[in-house]
Design a protein that fits this description.
Blueprint lengths: L5 E7 L3 H12 L8 E7 L6 H5 L5 E6 L6 H10 L5 E5 L3 E3 L3 H9 L5 E9 L6 H10 L5 E3 L6 E5 H6 L11 H10 L3 E12 L6 H12 L17 H22 L2 H25 L6 H32 L1
Parallel strand pairs: 1-2, 1-4, 2-3, 6-9
Antiparallel strand pairs: 4-8, 5-9, 6-8, 7-9
Helix pairs in contact: 8-11, 9-10, 9-11, 10-11
């Protein structure tokens, strides 16, 4: 197999239409496509002829893996079958700006201390409030070194991937926290606005987000194993569970007729919600109403708490059976 300069590794499960758009955005790069290969690692049993037709424009291979494997396992499997000096990890539901490769090469090689580069998220056309909120949260800090990068678009040398021993197979979610934290011990993670992507699969409504956040929260505690936790990450573990406890305590106290306890717990619940909401409202630069910001956190925190607690019980249950 002829070696390539850049290998795109794309794990995939579910909606093929979004995967097709992701591949199209790679093919539309202002870069020599003969230097690129795309490796799809899918858990779908079948894929359309349209996907395979992309092989006429770019080096593309498709591998099918069991549905039981984690996204980390899929990524690691893809790397094993890649040849590129550089590795580009993409989720299967994003559309890159046409200058993405050029900017990633320039950004990564712009400093000898950088080990991973990533582009910022931008809103898609007619983005609903929830997507605008997600974009704002993703771009709190840009054009500087960060302590974490989301796994939707990561660009790095193969050597870096090998030094951190790949993605953690044991994590169902939060694998990008773990992976980029390990890489951060080798050098800098840089988040640049010179290139961008649209998250095509971004949650569009709050009910959908609630279900996904429960799933995402399941690996919260597992993701801290084997890595140091920065102080700014600690609230993400404590706040959702604490607020959920206060909300449940308020409800139970009301039912039981303990009005004072119900009032006290509810008053303790309000300040964190208000602080987070005001901060997020400012981050969205008035593009989202305060009502939708409040609604976001009233869905987000309970979902995260349920996921975190569920993940804890799942972990304890697994240990007991071993």
């Amino acid at each position: 197999m002829k070696e390539k300069l850049i290998s795109f590794i794309i794990p995939h499960k579910g909606r093929e239409q979004l995967l097709l758009k992701t591949i199209e955005s790679v093919i539309q790069q202002s870069f020599d496509l003969s230097l690129i290969e795309i490796i799809i690692v899918t858990q779908n049993e079948q894929l359309s002829d349209r996907l395979h037709s992309f092989a006429e424009d770019i080096s593309l291979s498709v591998h099918t893996r069991p549905a039981s494997e984690t996204i980390s396992t899929l990524r690691n499997f893809g790397v094993e079958r890649s040849t590129g000096e550089y590795l580009a990890f993409l989720d299967a539901d994003i559309a890159l700006s046409s200058n993405w490769i050029e900017c990633m090469l320039e950004t990564l090689n712009g400093s000898s201390s950088r080990v991973i580069a990533s582009a910022v998220q931008v809103d898609g056309q007619d983005a609903p409030p929830l997507e605008k909120i997600r974009t704002a949260l993703s771009n709190v800090v840009t054009d500087q070194n960060v302590s974490f990068l989301p796994g939707r678009n990561l660009f790095l040398l193969r050597d870096t991937f090998e030094k951190v021993n790949g993605f953690p197979d044991h994590l169902v979610t939060c694998e990008d926290y773990y992976f980029t934290d390990r890489a951060n011990q080798l050098g800098d993670l840089y988040y640049t606005s010179a290139a961008s992507y649209v998250h095509l699969g971004e949650d569009k409504d709050f009910g959908e987000m609630f279900k996904k956040e429960i799933w995402r929260g399941q690996s919260n505690l597992l993701s801290v194993k084997g890595r140091s936790i920065p102080l700014n990450e600690i609230p993400s573990f404590i706040v959702p569970v604490g607020l959920m406890f206060l909300l449940v305590l308020t409800f139970i106290s009301l039912v039981a007729g303990y009005t004072l306890l119900a009032t006290t717990s509810f008053l303790l619940f309000l300040p964190p919600i208000a602080i987070y909401s005001i901060r997020l409202y400012q981050l969205t630069k008035n593009r989202v109403s305060l009502y939708n910001v409040l609604k976001f956190y009233l869905y987000y925190f309970p979902a995260r708490a349920i996921g975190t607690i569920g993940g804890l019980f799942k972990t304890l249950n697994t240990k007991c059976h071993h």
